[in-house]
Write a structure and sequence with these properties.
This protein is α+β, with helices and mostly antiparallel strands and 777 residues long. The protein is built from 23 helices and 22 strands. The chain folds into 4 domains: 99 residues, 2-Layer Sandwich (Alpha-Beta Plaits); 152 residues, 2-Layer Sandwich (Beta Polymerase, domain 2), CATH 3.30.460; 178 residues, Poly(a)-polymerase, middle domain (Orthogonal Bundle), CATH 1.10.1410; 231 residues, no CATH class. A hairpin with a 6-residue loop joins β8 and β9. It is elongated. The chain starts with a helix and ends in a 6-residue tail after the last helix. Bound molecules: uridine 5'-triphosphate. The site of uridine 5'-triphosphate (UTP) has 16 residues, from α9 and α11.
């Protein structure tokens, strides 16, 4: 019988049956009343020595010793009077040792039997375990949790180490992520997946046999050999299980500290730090997909030897530029997994491809390799040998070669150039298909996603991925955007750094040693603050970015129907909205050429040539997007054929053009009044007591403000005349509408003021007009 928590835990580990509350409580009380706590013992003292010594105070029924350390014992008498006798003895000396004898602490020890669906269950388990675990010496603690650490140091390359923990439970703990995926560096995080499936099965079986045996305690019913099975896994939430795991780590595992649960993460996690190994560790539950995608990374690095150095370089670059790595595990920066997938996707899109698509890998696998996890098809070959070598021979930017061999045609430089021109706003990156899918396919979250439907017939009505500034689908869990945590700012930094690196890789500075002793080549590329010339912002252009998720639902639907031609349709709507703003809201006089014919922007077309042929561009359109008969998207043609189409500013006369960017003949505009000056004051006046609306949020109000200025304020001595030339960018770049502005007559010198006002006002107002359905539909 277990009077002591120590003994209780000991027996618990041996798989002892749980007793009913009354029995345990009675036994415990009885034991406490009959025993004393003895300390000051040395390991050489045996159980028999103690028993013999304490016989002088009364009959001894049991001696329980702390065998691991041998520093204390519980001595149990058959009569309670013996306790008093032992305690009243002034000094206890035995074999030259001075023993301390104390009464047992009276502790409320509640063992509450498991109840079905009892939400308190975990708390009770924790409450029960806490005092017990606190009293355990570390050696004994290892009886509960056996920690086995294997440092596998690769002598040739000290960078890669494997750290493995084994828990003595029904469960198993599997490493995943960088410690095993071949992309780890020394001291990388240790990601662990605690697989409780066996424990669950065991529990379910035990439960059903208890039920069959009725209320009584069946022999098998609560047979337990791990702390984790103290929780009913069928009802406990992941956070509850992780709480228990955290407690075990804190109390039982030597050298582990800073243990805390992050339950707000997509996959709740217990974080800890291993002091001795100086390692940061994460334990998650239900992460079979993580283990599988780790296998996928392993496979790819086995297939393509340039992959690892490239991933390392990009990771290092991203770290230097503060683009990746969220210190606390969550944050707005890219995580290493997302960054690695970006490299994979780029390699799938090289010409010829360096890596096959995930779909192709699935086709290369055999029947036994078929793997479906949580409904997602995760099939790929288990051995790299199953994947035919690629035909791409591009240089990696091999660091063993003298830097003068670095060429802009290297895979490294290609990565930057690929993403510098990538249409993040209009695309969802799919490693499965190895191409960028139009974002409009994913706009309606609740509609069934066609791709997933084809792939995952069982996964109907799945929520779509969380869309953001960078959309990168997990190769297997297709409803997960692995870059969904990025905010606009971190995405902008990523894009900017790619553009700068792209430019730098094309420069002589990258390829030739500096004669002035300046840093050059890779060194400069990988220094934290690269002094790369800032690209001058386009001074007189107003940019209206494509923000798929903030568009009104009706427009999202229309864009969805437009398929790959969604950019043009959106551009047309924006042009119409701009017209409304200039004409109706700002009271400009607008004049457009009678027959607006689309023409190609030579500067922009240049950029198109560097685009990868695998991008989805307008040219791949297969569908006719006919919104009110205004836009007809070109028939299916390969990018190389360079077919395209555009719309007029008024969105009335679509024409087929030749290349990726679209520029239409300008509007000629005139403004006789300073409609930009003093708007806030006029707005307040017009609103009077009504609730003040923010600038640009109401078409009627803003039109009234302009009308008021036109009517009440003195006009310009000389009217301002200017041109506005709308241009659509996208397909090979972030989708946006650019409005290039140029003054043609500015006698009053007010163009700059007007332009600065428009820079802020126009995008907001266009958004409002689009919301109101004023985008020409
Ligand atoms: P990390 O982003 O931590 O990558 O994801 P890493 O390679 O391990 O890098 P460090 O050194 O720890 O920072 C770890 C693992 O978590 C899974 C993947 O298996 C990845 O390898 N993971 C991560 C996902 O499955 N999905 C995600 O969105 C993120």
């Amino acid at each position: 019988p277990e009077t002591d928590p120590f003994v209780y835990v000991d027996q618990h580990v041996k798989g002892r049956k749980h007793q009913t509350l009354t029995t345990v409580r009675d036994t415990r009380k009885n034991q406490e009343e009959h025993s004393v706590f003895v300390s000051g013992i040395k390991p050489e003292i045996s159980q028999t020595d103690i028993s013999e010594y304490f016989q002088q105070f009364g009959a001894v029924t049991d001696v329980i010793m702390d065998k691991g350390k041998g520093v204390f014992a519980i001595v149990q008498f058959s009569e309670t009077e013996s306790i008093q006798a032992a305690l009243s003895c002034v000094e206890h000396r035995m074999k030259g040792l001075k023993l301390r004898v104390k009464p047992r602490e009276k502790k409320e020890f509640k063992l509450i039997p498991k109840k079905k669906n009892n939400p308190q269950n975990l708390q009770q388990v924790l409450d029960r375990l806490r005092p017990d675990l606190c009293q355990l010496g570390s050696v004994r603690a290892l009886k509960l949790v056996n920690i086995q650490i294997l440092w596998l140091n690769d002598k040739k390359n000290q960078r890669f180490s494997v750290f493995n923990i084994t828990w003595v439970t029904d469960s198993q703990i599997l490493p995943f992520g960088s410690s095993v995926n071949t992309f780890g560096v020394h001291s990388c995080d240790l990601d662990l997946f605690l697989d409780l499936e066996n424990t669950k099965v065991f529990q379910a079986r035990a439960k059903s046999s208890t039920e069959q045996a009725g209320e009584g305690v069946s022999d098998d019913a609560h047979s337990e050999d791990s702390i984790l099975s103290d929780i009913d896994l069928s009802t406990a939430s992941p956070a509850e299980v992780l709480d228990l795991v955290a407690t075990i780590l804190k109390r039982c595992v030597p050298s582990v500290h800073k243990v805390h649960v992050v339950s707000t993460a997509r996959l709740p996690v217990v974080k800890f730090h291993h002091h001795e190994l100086n390692l940061q560790g994460d334990i998650t539950l239900n992460n079979r997909l993580g283990v599988r995608n780790t296998r996928f990374l392993q496979l790819c690095s086995g297939v393509e030897e340039r992959l690892r150095p490239l991933v390392y370089t990009i990771r290092y670059w991203a770290k230097q530029k503060q683009l990746a790595g969220n210190p606390s595990g969550s944050g707005p920066l890219l995580n290493n997994y997302a960054l690695t997938l970006l490299v994979f996707f780029y390699l799938q899109n090289c010409d010829p491809p360096v890596l096959p698509t995930v779909d192709q890998l699935r086709d290369m696998s055999c029947e036994e390799e078929e793997c479906v996890i949580e409904g997602w098809n995760c099939t790929f070959p288990s051995q790299p040998i199953a994947v035919p070598p690629c035909k791409n021979t591009q240089d990696l930017c091999n660091i063993t070669k003298p830097p003068c061999f670095l060429s802009s045609g290297s895979l490294l430089a290609g990565f930057f150039s690929f993403y510098a021109q990538f249409d993040f706003a209009g695309s969802v990156i799919s490693l499965r298909e190895g191409r960028a899918l139009p974002i409009t396919k994913f706009l309606s979250q609740n509609k069934q996603d066609e791709t997933m439907q084809e792939e995952q017939p069982t996964k109907s009505h799945l929520p779509g991925p969380k869309l953001g500034p960078l959309n990168l689908l997990d190769p297997f869990e297709l409803s997960h955007n692995v870059a969904g945590n990025l905010n606009e700012r971190s995405h902008r930094s990523f894009l900017k750094e790619c553009q700068e690196a792209d430019k730098y890789c094309r420069s002589l500075q990258y390829q030739h040693k500096s004669t002035k002793g300046k840093s050059w080549g890779l060194v400069r590329l990988l220094t934290p603050h690269m002094e790369v010339q800032q690209t001058k912002p386009e001074q007189l252009a107003i940019s209206i970015p494509f923000k798929a998720t903030s568009l009104p639902e009706k427009l999202q639907d229309e864009l969805q129907v437009a398929g790959d031609g969604f950019r043009l349709l959106w551009f047309q709507k924006v042009c119409c909205a701009v017209e409304v703003v200039l004409k109706t809201v700002l009271k400009c006089l607008l004049h457009a050429p009678a027959d607006a014919v689309f023409r190609e922007d030579p500067a922009a077309a240049e950029g198109t040539e560097t685009a990868s042929a695998s991008f989805n561009s307008l040219n791949d359109s297969t569908e006719s997007a006919d919104s009110q008969g205004e836009v007809t998207v070109g028939a299916k043609r390969p990018l190389s054929s360079g077919s395209d189409c555009s719309v007029s500013p008024q969105g009335k006369k679509p024409r087929l053009a030749k290349r990726g960017h679209h520029e239409v003949p300008p509007w000629t505009c005139a403004q006789k009044h300073m409609v930009w000056a003093g708007r806030r004051r006029v707005r307040r006046e017009l609103m009077k007591d009504a609730e003040c609306k923010p600038e640009g949020s109401c078409v009627d109000l803003e039109s009234q403000v302009s009308a008021y200025i036109v009517e009440k304020e003195p006009g310009l001595k000389q009217p301002l005349e200017f041109k506005v030339q709308p241009q659509m960018v996208g397909g090979t770049e972030n989708t946006k509408a650019l409005l290039k502005m140029e003054p043609s007559s500015d006698g009053a010198g007010v163009f700059q003021d007007f332009f600065h006002f428009l820079e802020v006002f126009l995008p907001k107002m266009v958004e409002t007009v689009l919301e109101k359905g004023g985008g020409g539909s």
